[in-house]
Hints:
With 354 residues, chain A is an alpha/beta fold. Chain A is built from 14 helices and 7 strands. Chain A folds into 3 domains: 3-185, Rossmann fold; 191-238; 252-353, Up-down Bundle (Zinc Finger, Delta Prime, domain 3).
Amino acid sequence: MLWVDKYRPKTLDKVTVHDQVAQNLRKLVSEQDCPHLLFYGPSGSGKKTLILALIKQMFGAGAEKVKMENKTWKIDTGTRTLEIELAMLSSAHHVEMNPSDAGFQDRYVVQEVIKEMAKNRPIDAKGKRAFKVLVLNEVDKLSREAQHSLRRTMEKYSASCRLILCCNSSSKVTEAVRSRCLNVRVNAPSEDQIVQVLEFIGKKENLQLPAGFAARIAAQSNRNLRRAILFFETCKVQQYPFTSNQAAPPLDWEQYVSEISTDILTEQSPKRLYAVRQKFYELLVNCIPPESILKKLLAELLKKLDADLKHEICHWAAHYEHKMRLGSKAIFHLEAFVAKFMSIYKEFLVASFG
Amino acid sequence: MAPLVPMSQPWVEKYRPRQVKDVAHQEEVIRVLTNTLQTADLPHMLFYGPPGTGKTTTALAIAHQLYGPELYKSRVLELNASDDRGINVVRTKIKDFAAVAVGTTRKAGYPCPPYKIIILDEADSMTEDAQNALRRTMETYSKVTRFFFICNYISRIIEPLASRCAKFRFKPLSEEVMSSRIMHICNEEGLNLDSQALSTLSAISQGDLRRAITYLQSAARLFGSSISPTDLISVSGVIPEDVVKSLLAACRSGEFDVANKEVSNIIAEGYPVSQLMAQFLDVIVSTDDIPDEQKARICKKLGETDKCLVDGADEYLQLLDVASETIRALFNMPQTLVF
Ligand SMILES: Nc1ncnc2c1ncn2[C@@H]1O[C@H](COP(=O)(O)OP(=O)(O)OP(=O)(O)O)[C@@H](O)[C@H]1O
Ligand SMILES: Nc1ncnc2c1ncn2[C@@H]1O[C@H](COP(=O)(O)OP(=O)(O)OP(=O)(O)O)[C@@H](O)[C@H]1O
Ligand SMILES: [Mg+2]
Ligand SMILES: [Mg+2]
């Protein structure tokens, strides 16, 4: 088992990083009438960990007996029958799924699948709770329509069902849905907190950590705890005993983006643009999210640019990411950003150095 | 229907008014509907306004009061965004229900007027095509059917439908009304809220009573029966003033890297950027030593960014863009570079 799973705290009182949030959650579910919840915060901050521990707090160990299945739903839209396949994780008390996986058909998932589940009383009515829990991941990726479809369901069936919604950016969840939940912010752990978690794991694994080693990994992780733990395990696999200056290797794709930034800083030409396009394709084919590519590229460029240019380039990055969101072919917008960058940078070079 | 397990509903549902007269703050519509209970006259209705102001509550209450529990099922069709309401449904389900003649059964104690009610809740999520398909149905069966349209944004309802309805805007609840409703719940639940906590709660809920009730319930669970303003603020997720101020301070340093660091920090803390920008706007507007021209430039940027966020743009990039433009405005740097 990977350390990220092995050392995921299983109960609310073992959650160390967000101990205050965990204590609050425990009190919140002490009665039968807790509100719907919306967890939000950056990736790898510990949302899922809290949610799983909370469900265990509500239902006891029974909630840990989960089965994973790929279910196909046949949905009659009046004109045709859609088949939607979705992965679901369920126990006797709760169901977890990711409705945005249905893409532009997500509305039907909410209207048919989720509503049906919410309507029905829990299978185990003798259990501790009179309701069951539906965990919906990545609700910020749901279309507006699908989000609207949640609204009345959340009210109408609130006696038999509680929703726990989870997302990275709550700005993308409509106001009407947010108004129906208690919003729980899960911030990224500080570097110090990450160091503590790493040292804890080190102790459990009987590892000797050189001074400053955990801190270096924490600094590299961008306050993403999952990443820090993964880096830590990679280091262990790579070389143990650890050496005092050992560092985690950067992720492959990040390394690749960093090369792109060097490419376009050294030469601004149609030929180079074409070469960079191939690299973008490569990244996209490997399922790296285009906005992550753009953000990483921006970060790399910002390290090397003049102050005036920083303002300009960050503006265009925001501009093209927005366009990308509206459009459907990410490659066009990544490329447009690079072309824009090249032209600005070239002009700057000519103006400064002739 | 009596709930099986009475305590298992969140307070927002537990304290949903069952009768029109208990809906707070929306006097105009209440007057019209109270009248309906006597005369049985009812125009088509259009309710619009922000979340948590009583629109769904009012529509459901009047329908229940008109028909009583037994007739409700056969006389009222409630469709909301969780139902498929595409053009097909309009042409079949809605039309069929609208066309059925009304029986003469009456239940003692209820007015049981000779028409049915179709409630289209969250109607702003219906497509224009589906709305257009409704026009005919509405006209053809207006003798035996009344329509209720409910939405947040009236502009999403096509004119031909809107013009056939009596329109009512549901206002955000005022501080006094909100307070008295909250007091009522506090009494029922045995909670203690001083006047300062009450006004804090009203302020952070911004006229949305549903939100106020959720905050109240959460605070009650977390902090017991005596609730202070700080308790309420901590459950509400309002962004602390310092966070907003330090973003402005970072911009005032004029250093891009300083601002970038602050922005990254805000994102890591998980604060919702749309809300942060609303609070940033307040701070900018109320800061005395920023000249109007600079304020205008920053506000313009905030407006553009808000739109981008609604479109689903990345929060970090958008906030960084705002911070960068704020620096450029404060230091009178041109909007685009000229070499
Ligand atoms: N309180 C904690 N103490 C120790 N380790 C933790 C804690 N919370 C989370 N972790 C570790 O961090 C990893 C990531 O956490 P989690 O999966 O909960 O993140 P997440 O917020 O759901 O991320 P994402 O948004 O990317 O899905 C977990 O696998 C776990 O190992
Ligand atoms: N005017 C009001 N008077 C009394 N209670 C109210 C009022 N408005 C809202 N509430 C409370 O808030 C809850 C939600 O109200 P309601 O469902 O009517 O909101 P809505 O206007 O339909 O919102 P949305 O646009 O999000 O659907 C109710 O259950 C009730 O507890
Ligand atoms: Mg997760
Ligand atoms: Mg409503």
